[in-house]
Amino acid sequence: MNKLLFIDALRGMAILGVLINHAARNIEVWGILGKNVHLTPWVYQIMAQGSRGVQLFFVASAFTLCLSYERRKNEKNPLLNFFIRRFFRIAPLFYCGFLFYTIRPVLLENKELPSFGHIFSTLTFTNGWNPYWFNAANAIVPGGWSIAVEMTFYLLFPFLFSRIRSLNQAIYVTAGSLLISRVIFFVLDSYFQINDKNLWNIFISGWFPNQLPIFFIGFIFYFIFSNFRSTSIDLDRKYLSEFITKKSFIKLLLAVSIVLLVILPFFHHKLIPISFVFGLDFLLLATCLAIYPSRLLVNRFFCFLGTISFSGYITHFYVLNLAHRALHRLHLNYLPPELYLIVLIGIALAGTIVISYFCYKFIEIPGQTLGRKLIVALEARKLWFLK
């Protein structure tokens, strides 16, 4: 599979959005500038929706899995090889994050070790099915809830991909899963099973059944992309009489998708979750970039950021904390909150890029290489037994 630069760019936008969201939450929710200091409401409302970068990751993940699984379907052990690749794609860096965020403070700062259940469920990626473990995972490895959701999707993906074989099927499954997930959500929201209603709402909003329709949007994009690629549409063939019209139309749709990213934070509807609406906009954005990779978004910066995005997702929490400490030492915490937010994002982004590149090069890549070596070793052992 040739490297698709627009997918790296989408991942770069996703991690940037997540970082912006957490930077804004540092000020508005966790009060790092003081409890009485707040961002302008509309500014925070837009910045907070950077958290939808997680859903953009989900859409991109489903899409790339469809591409790679289809390409490798003729391997001797495609199912086993798939799970090995997925595990070694996530686990090595995630477990290093566990050592850094959980074990290091216990050894160096005399902090208490979380409960066995929290640790075990986080390390086995099963914390997504218990409301107490779900949110607590973020204290073990920040962002751990979304990793659990992703790993659950990996577990089901081969079955789903074997059943969804056309664009129409993908659309029907997406609509059906959205309907079912909303019914489940409203039932559970009315009859919550634990005493902490806030924790219960966090759980039923973020757990896998509520995120599954977002993954299915990635399936829709896969079939749209496959159909587009098979027709060999080329927008750069300037001799076509309709070239200007086609290219202008894609540019218009791309502009609409970008404008929607700013408008959608103010969208509220009880029946359709905002995360799903963002998912549809990500589908439009991805389709436009697949056809016309505008340099505004598909450029070296976003592509590089996308390449190291998983490392960035794990490390940016700590880097934000370091950036905040540095700004306090420089007495810049007295800046107006919006200006402080801009400076915080800039410093944290630079630091995240540096640390994430190191993690990508020395943890992610070796981890993936180890997975490939294991696949080769298992194939060789199987051949030895057959002799």
Quick tags:
387 residues; mainly alpha; 77% helix; globular
Structure description:
The protein is mostly helical and 387 residues long. The chain has one domain (5-386). It contains 15 helices and no strands. It has helices at 5-28, 41-48, 53-71, 78-109, 116-123, 131-140, 144-163, 167-190, 197-206, 208-231, 243-263, 274-291, 300-307, 309-329, 337-386. The longest helix is centred in the last third of the chain and has 50 residues, at 337-386.
Topology:
Elements: H1 5-28, H2 41-48, H3 53-71, H4 78-109, H5 116-123, H6 131-140, H7 144-163, H8 167-190, H9 197-206, H10 208-231, H11 243-263, H12 274-291, H13 300-307, H14 309-329, H15 337-386
Domain Acyltransferase: 5-356
Protein name: Acyltransferase
Keywords: Acyltransferase, Membrane, Transferase, Transmembrane, Transmembrane helix
The string of secondary-structure elements, in order, is HHHHHHHHHHHHHHH
Report the sheet with the most strands, covering strand number, pairing sense and barrel closure. Answer: none
Overall tally of domains: 1
Number of strands: 0
Keywords: Acyltransferase, Membrane, Transferase, Transmembrane, Transmembrane helix
GO molecular function, one term: acyltransferase activity
Pfam families: Acyl_transf_3
Protein name: Acyltransferase
